[in-house]
Design goal:
With 419 residues, this protein is α/β, with parallel strands linked by helices. 40% of the residues lie in helices and 18% in strands. The chain is built from 12 helices and 15 strands. The strands form 3 sheets. A 7-stranded mixed sheet has the order 6-7-8-9-10-12-11. It has a 6-stranded mixed sheet with strand order 3-2-1-13-14-15. A two-stranded antiparallel sheet has the order 4-5. Helix 7 links the parallel strand 9 and strand 10. It is globular and about 65 Å long.
Length: 419
């Protein structure tokens, strides 16, 4: 009798144990579905492996005469960013293309090692290639006074290098491109749309469009919210940024998104922090991580809204923890570097104008604010603006295109969802 009671008690204990495990598991799912989901999105990292540059004369001159990417501290920016991602521990990190400087295989491999640290911390990384990342004939190593070409990667190589990314979030892959579908929760999917691997770059393959519609049909049938991601832009963010920026057959995607109520697309490519709307579709183009103010986006998704805001990588704080005293004023120095890249080009135009330096200062500050997404903080100078418009040049048209859309803030956004 005693043995029978003992066996019964053991069975009851085991039953309670498994009931307790099952209840906790169910509770975790409910909590995850009922609470806010946090995602981090970054783009245009333009990472270059340290072994591919000695930061010598050729590389330095090339960077200083380029588009304001602060490549001198590329490694430090990426490492500081990775630490911030792990500290914040989002449900996923989204990288929307141009993740390498010039598509060098070694840069991809070294970046993948860094991303593995994020994956090992339990944070899935969703990666798309950009126009810089594949089949790049300018993949190079920069040493001393010159450079030499190195191996790039094709789509298969890209897939192999980043095969650990995404983990068990990946639920469907497009057989015709590097597009795929990731399940964040049972209520939220991320659709990663590749337009850079096969055929003509900056164009969605017809077969991929068919594949996308099937995924959106499945999402609708299960009442699932979908956020899409591209490298190039779906919407036209500036009247002068069209060819090479907006996806050539993007209207096909826009029609699908309108049909299936996809409200948000995330992109990059322009290096400009900008938000555009067309009908029901909202597109957030996050600025380049390598360009001042060196920011990324944080997205929170709840049952009734999607919210977005930017955050600057705190390189100075990271450097302090590494006992690096040379990066104490990183934010200011990064800003000055980008500002100089635009002011140097303009200064030649007004070199003989007595008010030339005032005009240059105004335009340089305006351009920095435009790329950073904080036009609302610009100190307006009507006199300088009128002087620039009198030039009737490409540059004056560019400045007008910025101003005429309104001096708005593009670092914060909210989308209300249907209840």
């Amino acid at each position: 009798m005693r043995d029978r009671y003992l066996k019964l008690l053991i069975l009851i204990f085991i039953g309670f144990f498994f009931m307790g495990c099952f209840s906790e598991e169910e509770k975790g799912i409910e909590d995850k579905q009922g609470s806010e989901i946090k995602l981090i999105v970054a783009t245009d990292l333009h990472y270059i492996s340290p072994s591919l540059t000695d930061h010598g004369e050729y590389f330095t001159r090339m960077v200083e005469n380029a588009d304001g990417k602060y490549m001198t501290f590329c490694e430090e920016i990426i490492d500081a960013f990775i630490e911030e991602v792990m500290d914040q521990h989002p449900s996923a990190l989204i990288l929307s293309g141009d993740i390498t400087f010039n598509g060098a295989k070694l840069s991809h491999q070294d970046l993948a090692k860094k991303l593995k640290m994020i994956e090992d911390a339990g944070i899935p990384v969703l990666v798309l290639p950009g126009n810089h990342d594949l089949n790049n004939k300018m993949a190079a190593s920069f040493q001393g006074n010159g450079y030499y070409l190195v191996e790039s990667v094709e789509s298969k190589g890209f897939e192999e290098i980043y095969e650990d990314c995404g983990g068990n979030l990946l639920i469907e892959k497009d057989p015709n491109s590097l597009s795929y579908l990731a399940k964040i929760t049972s209520d939220l999917w991320i659709l990663m749309v590749d337009v850079n691997t096969k055929g003509k770059s900056n164009r969605v393959l017809d077969e991929t469009i068919d594949w996308i519609e099937k995924q959106l049909q499945a999402a609708r049938s299960h009442n699932i919210c979908v956020i899409s991601v591209t490298h190039q832009n779906l919407l036209r963010h500036n009247e002068m940024f069209y060819n090479g920026f907006v996806i050539e057959n993007g209207d096909s995607l826009i029609d699908l998104y309108d049909k299936y109520d996809v409200l948000l697309n995330l992109s990059g490519h322009m290096h400009i922090q900008h938000i555009e709307e067309k009908g029901k579709l909202n597109e957030i183009a996050t600025s380049s991580l390598m360009v001042s103010p060196n920011q990324y986006g944080i997205i929170t998704v709840s049952h009734d809204k999607i919210e977005y805001h930017t955050k600057t990588v705190d390189v100075a704080k990271w450097a302090e923890n590494k006992s690096r005293s040379d990066l104490t004023n990183f934010m200011e120095e990064s800003y000055d570097f980008f500002r100089k890249s635009s002011s140097d080009k303009l200064r030649q135009t007004f070199i003989n104008d007595p008010e030339g330096e005032q005009i240059v200062d105004f335009v340089a500050d305006l351009n920095c604010a435009y790329f950073g997404g904080y036009l609302d903080k610009v100190k307006w100078d009507e006199k300088s603006y009128e002087k620039i418009q009198s030039l009737n040049s490409y540059f004056s048209l560019y400045i007008r295109s910025i101003v005429e859309e309104g001096l708005k803030n593009h670092q914060k956004y909210r989308i209300d969802l249907k209840k």
